[in-house]
Amino acid sequence: MLRFVVIEVRQHLCCANVFLNFQQSITDFDSVRINVEDGLIRVKDSSDSTVVEVKVGEYFSILTETFSNLIVDQENISFRISVQNVKDLCQMDSMKESQQSTGTFQLEEGQNVSLHCGQCGSTLCDSQSYNKVREFPSGSIDISEFFCHHGPSFSDVLLPRNTDLFYGFQFVILNMENIRNGSKEREGHIYCKRCSRYLGETMFEGKAVKLWTDSVVMKRDKDAKTCDLFDADSQRNLLRLLMLKIINETSLPSPEPLLRNMHFTKVVLETSLANRKPQYLLVQILEKNLPVLKNDEELQNVASKDIDAIIHLLNVKLRVSQAFKLLYRLIEPDAKSNGGQVEAMDENEPPMLSYWQQDINILKLKISPFLFHDLVDELNCNSLLLPEIYRNNKDSFTLSYIFQ
């Protein structure tokens, strides 16, 4: 039975790419029939009596004689159709209104707050107020560009005092003395003293600490419960915010409509695991804000309607969305940790990582291991929506989506 439907709508090219993902291999069916009508795609396989109808008439009209590029591969079928009367799907997307790439930081100067482990609730930093709450320079720019004049060394300026708290994309930076009693340090990595959850890493030769905000919560004196340091909406959309951050920091807008959503951005995402071993994700964003139609709920969980004693009709409810289309490759070096430094890498490791790291035009960004693994899981899952012939390339990169 059909599981998911994804339709890439390319308005300026007047075409749509349709991807159908099934629960089992196509070779297990005796037959699969696909009918394309003016505003409808109908799918019926031989495994049961259910007819799946995908209604697209409210988004575009199909030129029925343009069915082409048919690919049948394992659990996937894909094809291309020409379309006309295409609606502006970007205006219909409910996610369009917010384009900020960081989220709203919840802590204000002068507020009394305590910081706690997000797993066990143990106190990491006792209640105090912070006189200076400032955004930390982005990792994508030279720190010297963050200041309007040159005075003391930048490490002295950026080293937080006991009453300072700096923040950035899903992290906060504190003076090491603030959390010394509630944490323990191993080779530059910070762990909760009670439950040993990995919290972050040291900075400035151990004088400061960067804590990942998906491991830390705060508690205001007036509140009985803990809360996140960033607003709830940003916590629910971290992968989208991560993509927007990358886009915003590498954006070169084009006036040409066909090129406006193309974005050949490369980024090296790095994380450090709780066992102090590094992992890297090489990402190349091919398209941003790609209009797509897709169903969110797997079709086997959707109730069908009986037409008669034999035929069951299942209508697919499509949602208008936008997607980042990208290539990615996970690299896990066989490295040993020595005081937080990588000693050696597997000699058989391809040189791709080193090449990307040395390229000054490629963004390098370190993120928390929890966000890193959520991203990898999402990419792996969404890549299965594509036939293998599109999914994998000769450089061991995989094609996938991040849906907004």
From TrEMBL:
Reactions catalysed, semicolon-separated, are: S-ubiquitinyl-[E2 ubiquitin-conjugating enzyme]-L-cysteine + [acceptor protein]-L-lysine = [E2 ubiquitin-conjugating enzyme]-L-cysteine + N(6)-ubiquitinyl-[acceptor protein]-L-lysine
Q: What InterPro entries does the record point to?
A: UBQ-conj_enz_E2-bd_prot
Instruction: Quote the Pfam families the UniProt record gives.
Output: HECT_2
Enzyme class comes to: transferase
Entry's EC annotation: 2.3.2.26
Q: From which residue to which does the signal peptide run? A: none
Described by its record, this protein's role is as follows: E3 ubiquitin-protein ligase which accepts ubiquitin from specific E2 ubiquitin-conjugating enzymes, and transfers it to substrates, generally promoting their degradation by the proteasome. Independently of its E3 ubiquitin-protein ligase activity, acts as an inhibitor of CPSF3 endonuclease activity by blocking CPSF3 active site.
* Record text on subunit structure and interactions: Interacts with UBE2C/UbcH10 (E2 ubiquitin-conjugating enzyme). In vitro, interacts with cyclin-B.
State what protein this is by name.
E3 ubiquitin-protein ligase E3D
Supply the source organism for this entry.
Musca domestica (House fly)
Gene name, per UniProt, is LOC131807049
